[in-house]
Specification:
The protein contains 5 helices and no strands. The chain has about 110 residues and is mainly alpha-helical.
């Protein structure tokens, strides 16, 4: 008779068969500053290394586990978060009334 633990094992087995699932699980154990992480970002996820903090957070949240294509889910979510973070940011530095960038001392840059 199959119990609840058998169902969990079958679900894990099916998830491991999805493309990229094993790579993501392995990457979740890496330090983000390691060379192996850089390889994961560049060759597996195909995103720039600058998006590492976003990808680390997405992997921790684990919503990618429910996606039919886990790698594409991570890629799409990382780009969505990145775009949302920069949406509406016209300038990272404050501008004066003439539209000239100002530094911290409130003098023209």
């Amino acid at each position: 008779m199959a119990g609840p633990h058998d169902d969990l094992r079958m679900l894990e087995r099916r998830q491991d068969d999805l493309p990229g699932h094993a790579e993501i699980k392995a990457a979740s154990r890496l330090h983000p500053s390691s060379g192996a992480w850089a390889f994961f970002m560049r060759e597996i996820v195909r995103l720039p290394l600058e998006l590492t903090p976003v990808v680390v957070q997405i992997i921790r949240i684990e919503t990618w586990k429910l996606a039919p294509d886990p790698l594409e889910a991570i890629r799409a979510e990382a780009m969505r978060v990145h775009q949302r973070a920069w949406q509406g940011v016209a300038s990272p530095t404050p501008l004066d009334s003439r539209g000239v960038p100002r530094n911290a001392k409130d003098t023209p840059v």
